[in-house]
Design brief:
The complex is a heterodimer. By secondary structure, chain A is mainly β. Chain A has helices at residues 2-18, 122-127, 146-154, 158-161, 190-193, 197-202, and strands at residues 33-37, 45-48, 52-63, 69-76, 83-85, 98-105, 109-116, 138-140, 168-175, 178-184, 214-218, 229-240, 247-270, 287-288, 297-306, 310-319, 324-326, 349-357, 360-361, 363-365, 370-372, 377-385, 396-420. Chain A starts with a helix and ends with a strand. The chains are: A mainly beta, B alpha+beta.
């Protein structure tokens, strides 16, 4: 009896502890955007009377994480002679292979080149005040409200709310499907444009409609806009059984490709003389987190190291989600309909979008702008030049801002058994 | 206080255990039934024949007629005759073969049959009893007391094997591609047959680039898994089944099956077609033509893998037989050896009675060969002699003939031939 009572007491305590209301935990967790099939759509068994049967494929898309996201849902895996999906397979010739080369990512500025085999730029064309989109044109957006422009592109009011006003952005057509993208945010505030808007505004010309995708844009779970964001993508499909078949099974695979960010900002101690014993406001210390930052890629460890002239931050990044990390510059290859194979270079590469201490950009190796994951884990070393810092003899704190930009992909499957009745 | 509680708990546990056990049994029984249910598209049998009891009997008497009746079953997936792709196959035929030295066949015409295969309405397939012929045991000659002979009945029938199997159109197999795919191409083995005596036992799948296309190639392994013989490929014309089963003058078509293969709705070109089985197995290679690739870019250009269906049809004539040994017994088992009969030429049609006699009279015996006549009713006939009725001198009315006979003398008074 004593044991039972003791067990009960422990259980009660544990239950009570678990029910302590810590409040909503923003910017935590290891999930990004998930997809799943709706109950019964598609059905696991479909009965064909006569020649064919129609059915819906409803895909629920949910953003559990903290980042604004832009992605696309792709449907594949089925025999096109058995299942016909409206809007897919109608123009299988329309493949789009794009590549995004980053020239520079600075503190609030960016230069890059978007190269596509055939770039329609439909979204920009529709918001550029009737400017004809074609080779050799230039959209000078100095006089436009960039926040409104981006909100029109993404069909949100996010960018206006975040203060994307009176800034200079240009998308300069180089002809032949090449586009020079230039971005210069005055009064750049990393905290305001972090968790997606900055990253996605650079990727604005890219559309997930290319390569048979159904695009979506969703905001993150933030204090100002709390909760998991949810939307549905519906495909209308028709199943036709071959003449001599009375039953066949068809797999449906949904590939969810999306652009996402992991943002981490923590106070770091800038101490030009870390080995001195004098009393200081702070001391060099590391940061580690096992809870994630509300994204499928997490910054799990930051260890500062004093080298004399620099403070080098050893930053460890891990894929803590269930999917695969795509190089955001090659996110088009995430589409199952993309004509080119996926190679090692297309996977596991993360763009180091922000690496600042205060407004000082860090110098990172082995690459200034990217880091590679091996077996789901990668490290980058970023140095803060202490000579560029105010001359002080004691330690002081300053925010260390890190933002990782990447593409991410998950798949879900359901098999539909089609029977003739 | 504790004891009753423990008892209650134990009793409840037992009840729960029983329920769990019953549930397990139910699940197992249900699973067993599902797995054991005859599935039309599985199995390695088609039409089969077997003799019914006593038709023919294992022992028959000479000079008696008896029926030959077979049980014909179709435990395969298709009817005989069948209709596929607007083609109406001929019916099957049953033939009886005997050694005509021992057995005579009353009717020599082939017997046609129709049998429905397994289906949801006839899970076991159709079964019929068919009287194939009436046979007559010939009179036993020679010294053998009860010779044996075989009655052989064969069924020759058109049949088709159909395989439809999911295969992965793997456009990425020809190059390294790390993209997550719904499937990847692999070889397939089929051990249970397809509800026919000829089965597709294995399909080896290969995908190779052909320009901008991915060309699938299939090595289809065919084997005769039934207990019969593949006669020949089945020509889809109006040829008469008897002629087809006779295999006259077409040695090159013996032991071959016609092959048709299709992926999704695209016909494949197969080579060789028909395929010859050697040692009960054969392999045919099928792939889409260049025109098929060009006409179906949605199947052969797309880069994402997908599952589709490979259909294979094998058309053939199949033969299966059954034999039974019949022992023929003489009727004169009490008198020893029965009268010999001439194998050819004039024959005395004997009418055997209980007294071991022969119906041949004197003149008939003389005509058959006097030196081989045996007029002694009480004696046994030796091989090569004829048992004839006892010579009666009174029947001879010719004086000279009577005088020539040792046993007779001529009575001059009465002018009658009498025994001496």
């Amino acid at each position: 009896m004593k044991k039972v009572v003791a067990l009960l007491v422990v259980l009660v305590v544990l239950t009570a502890c678990d029910s302590f209301d810590r409040g909503p935990q923003y910017y935590e967790g290891t999930r990004g955007v998930s997809v799943d099939f709706a109950e019964g759509n598609p059905p696991t068994e479909l009965f064909v009377r006569g020649d064919e049967a129609t059915f819906n494929i409803d895909v629920r898309v949910r953003n559990h994480g903290a980042s604004v996201t832009k992605g696309g849902v792709y449907l594949s895996g089925y025999d096109p002679t058995i299942i016909d999906v409206e809007g897919i397979d109608e123009d299988r010739d329309f493949f789009q292979s794009c590549r995004f080369d980053i020239d520079n990512i600075g503190y609030g500025n960016f230069n890059g080149l978007l190269q596509c085999e055939r770039l329609g730029l439909g979204p920009l064309g529709s918001v550029s005040g009737g400017i004809e989109v074609g080779d050799g044109f230039r959209i000078d957006l100095d006089d436009l409200n960039i926040g409104t422009l981006l909100d029109n592109i993404f069909n949100t009011d996010l960018f206006t709310n975040l203060g994307f006003n009176q800034n200079s952005v240009s998308f300069d057509s180089q002809g032949g499907g090449s586009f020079a993208v230039s971005f210069d945010l005055q009064d750049f505030d990393p905290d305001r444009v972090s968790r997606g808007p900055y990253f996605l505004s650079l990727w604005a010309p890219w559309s997930f409609e290319y390569n048979q995708g159904t695009p979506y844009t969703m905001q993150g779970d933030t204090p100002s806009n709390p909760g998991v964001k949810e939307s549905f993508v519906t495909f209308n499909a028709t199943a036709t059984l071959p003449e001599e078949s009375v039953r066949t099974s068809q797999p449906l695979m949904v590939t969810n490709c999306y652009l996402y960010t992991t943002y981490a900002a923590s106070e770091t101690c800038i101490d030009p003389q870390p080995n001195s014993d004098t009393e200081k406001a702070c001391r060099l210390s590391g940061y580690s987190s096992g809870n994630g930052q509300g994204a499928p890629v997490a910054i799990t460890n930051v260890q500062p190291r004093y080298t004399g002239q620099d403070i080098v931050y050893e930053i460890t990044v891990e894929n803590v989600g269930s999917g695969r990390v795509y190089n955001p510059k090659q996110i088009d290859k995430c589409s199952p309909h993309h004509p080119e194979p996926v190679t090692e270079e297309d996977l596991g590469t993360i763009v180091l979008g922000m690496a600042y201490v205060g407004d000082q950009q860090l110098d990172c190796v082995p690459d200034q702008h990217t880091l590679r994951l091996y077996n789901g884990r990668g490290t980058v070393s970023c140095a803060l030049d202490l000579e560029s810092q105010p001359f002080v003899k004691s330690g002081y704190t300053s925010p260390l801002v890190l933002e990782m930009w990447y593409g991410y992909a998950d798949t879900v499957r359901r098999t539909v058994t089609i029977r003739r009745v | 206080m504790i004891t009753p509680l423990r008892k209650t708990w134990t009793w409840r546990s037992k009840m729960q255990s029983r329920h769990v056990l019953m549930l397990c049994v139910l699940v197992l029984v249900a699973c067993g039934q599902q797995q054991g249910m005859p599935t039309a598209q599985r199995g390695t049998t088609g039409v089969d024949v077997s003799f019914v009891d006593d038709a023919p009997p294992l022992q028959v008497y000479e000079d008696t007629t008896f029926p030959v009746t077979v049980r014909v079953t179709n435990t395969g997936a298709h009817d005989v005759p069948f209709r596929i792709d607007d083609y109406d196959s001929p019916k099957g035929i049953l033939r009886v073969n005997t050694d005509d030295f021992y057995l005579g066949v009353d009717a020599v015409e082939d017997t046609t049959f129709e049998l429905r295969g397994r289906s949801e309405t006839i899970p076991q397939g159709e079964e019929r009893l068919v009287k194939v012929a009436d046979l007559t045991a010939n009179t036993v000659s020679g010294q053998r007391e009860s010779p044996s002979t075989q009655v052989f009945v064969s069924a020759c029938y058109p049949y088709v094997t159909e395989l439809s199997t999911d295969i992965c159109m793997d456009g990425s197999s020809a190059q390294r591609n790390l993209r997550e795919q719904v499937c990847s191409s692999r070889d397939h083995s089929y051990s249970g047959g397809q509800g026919a005596p000829v089965a597709v036992s294995r399909v080896e799948v290969d995908m190779y680039p052909s320009g901008q296309y991915t060309r699938p190639s299939f090595a289809i392994h065919v084997s005769n898994t039934g207990r019969g013989t593949v006669l020949r490929a089945l020509p889809r014309d109006d040829a008469e089944i008897g002629e087809l089963c006779a295999l006259r003058g077409e040695r090159e078509s013996v032991n071959t099956v016609d092959v048709e293969a299709r992926i999704a709705d695209v016909e494949l070109e197969c080579n060789p077609d028909p395929v010859r089985l050697q040692g009960d197995t054969g392999t045919v290679f099928c792939e889409p033509t260049n025109e098929a690739l060009q006409d179906n870019p949605n199947l052969f250009i797309r880069k994402d893998n997908f599952e589709t269906t490979l259909y294979v049809k094998l058309w053939y004539l199949y033969s299966i037989g059954e034999s039974r040994t019949v022992e023929i017994q003489r009727k004169n088992i009490q008198g020893g050896e029965r009268p010999s009969q001439p194998s050819s030429g004039p024959s005395c049609q004997e009418e055997m009675g209980d007294g071991f006699s022969c119906s041949c009279n004197y003149d008939q015996c003389v005509e058959l060969g006097k030196d081989r006549c045996n007029f002694n009713n009480d004696a046994l006939c030796s091989p090569g002699t004829f048992c004839c009725q006892t010579f009666a001198c009174e029947e001879v009315d010719d004086e000279q003939q009577c005088r020539n006979e040792e046993r007779c003398s001529w009575n001059n008074e009465t002018e009658v031939c009498v025994s001496s």
